[in-house]
Amino acid sequence: WFSFDRTDEYQLCNFILEFKALMFISIGFVCLAIGAVQSHLCLTLSPHEHYCRSIGPGASPTFYWEISWFVVQAANVWVAFLYLPFSNNRAGGVVPRSTKG
Fold first, then answer.
1. CB-neighbour burial class of residue 96 (10 A; exposed 0-12, middle 13-18, buried 19+)
2. Taking a C-beta distance cutoff of 8 angstroms, is the pair 43, 55 a contact?
3. Which of 22, 37, 42, 80 could bridge across to 56 with cysteines, CB 3.0–4.6 Å?
């Protein structure tokens, strides 16, 4: 977030797209798998008792910390999105090289 030019339209769009793709994989698929395993374990660990309050999804002591970081990540993308109207298109000044000898 700190290493790119926020006035360049391409870099802002690239940041938004790459960050959302990474969030889809890391938060989407990985958290889906972890939550499914935790839910399965809390329901099937004992036939007489359910342990969902202690080992179920959302029962981790770091749950609120993880949710707050998710909000920070989403806010980063929205800030980059709000920078877009104030950015400059710098691709128009680039002249492509000729491929003919």
1. exposed
2. no
3. 42
Give, as one character, the DSSP assignment of residue 26: I
Taking Cα atoms as reference points, which of 59, 66, 76 lies closest to residue 20?
A: 76
Domain that holds residue 78: 9-86
Is position 26 within any domain? yes
- Residue 84's pLDDT is 87
- Give the pTM: 0.66
DSSP 86: G
Domain membership flag for residue 20: yes
Strand (E) or helix (H) holding 53: helix 52-55
